[in-house]
Amino acid sequence: MTDMQTRAGFVALIGEPNAGKSTLTNRMVGAKVSIVTHKVQTTRARIRGVALEGASQLVFVDTPGLFKPTRRLDRAMVAAAWGGAADADVVVLMIEANRGVTEGVERILEGLQDFGEHRKIALAINKIDRIKSEALLALSEKMNEAYPFVATFMISAERGHGVDALKEWLAGEVPEGPWLYPEDQIADLPLRMIAAEMTREKLTLRLHQELPYQLTVETEAWEERKDGSCKIDQLIYVMRDGHKGIVLGNKGETIKAVGKAAREELVEFLGRKVHLFLQVKVRPNWLEESERYDEMGLNFKDGNS
């Protein structure tokens, strides 16, 4: 293929927390590159997944969910989401069919007014299997009255319904030009960060409501071994001594279970043996440390009120 025949561009998925952006990214890419849990606000960094569709390369920017920020981390996440949308060639607003036009969706629609008419913004109504078709059509009409979307798609990111049609449309909308990444690359995140995200996902799933967003995970060291395996050392930062006890669990049961689940997923992802070592540290002010934001791919200054 010559450069003139190929297309490549950035696609930003925006929406409220838990709208299904990470699930859609992973389905489009065909691999797990973004953290997926049933809790809101789990995506922190702008994770890019790279997918191919015909002669087009689609680079997905899976942004943090857009919500009303209160803390520094919240503000940095929302700034990252809007920044990802502003930098993209095509923007897809995802909403949940069963939730409809919430206050959060209305705030996002207001924010989109600043993007100008030149921006390609499509609407994807997700979780279509959860409401009746009449209600779905009414929701589509209401959204398109509120904003002039260039296209509307009815999808189920989890089941795959309508995803191929969306992917095909995106392939035709990104600009002509050479591919931005090698053909076999599925994400532009460093493996260290992907590994940290996998561990954080397991912690989030395991701890449920006990310790929602008061922790972060960093990959402190990554050692390639001669036998082809790798040794990964990770630090889990929590804000209080009590949180440390929760993460460790009775006789260390929780941290062992998290480490086992994260290691198994890393083995599958990397296709080789992994030695994973987790350590929990109390760091009361990690939410106010710029280094933590750098590790998450966020801008510390964006968190200023």
Give an overview of the whole structure:
With 305 residues, the chain is α/β, with parallel strands linked by helices. The chain has two domains: 3-173, P-loop containing nucleotide triphosphate hydrolases (Rossmann fold), CATH 3.40.50; 191-303, GMP Synthetase, Chain A, domain 3, CATH 3.30.300.20. 36% of the residues lie in helices and 22% in strands. The protein contains nine helices and nine strands. The protein has a six-stranded mixed beta sheet, with helices on both faces. Strands 7-8-9 form a three-stranded mixed beta sheet. β2 and β3 (56-62) form a beta hairpin. α6 (191-207) crosses α8. The relative contact order is 0.15. The model is unreliable at 35-45 (pLDDT under 50).
Structure annotation, total helices: 9
Which CATH-level-2 architecture of the largest domain?
3-Layer(aba) Sandwich
Strand fraction equals 15-25%
Strand order of the largest sheet: 2-3-1-4-5-6
The CATH homologous superfamily name of the largest domain equals P-loop containing nucleotide triphosphate hydrolases
What's this model, at a glance?
This protein is an alpha/beta fold. Helix content is 36%, strand content 22%.
Question: How are the secondary structure elements laid out?
Answer:
Layout (H helix, E strand, L loop, with lengths): L6 E9 L5 H9 L17 E7 L2 E7 L9 H16 L2 E7 L6 H10 L7 E7 L6 H14 L5 E3 L8 H11 L17 H17 L7 E10 L5 E9 L2 H8 L4 H18 L3 E9 L7 H7 L9
Parallel strand pairs: 1-3, 1-4, 4-5, 5-6, 8-9
Antiparallel strand pairs: 2-3, 7-8
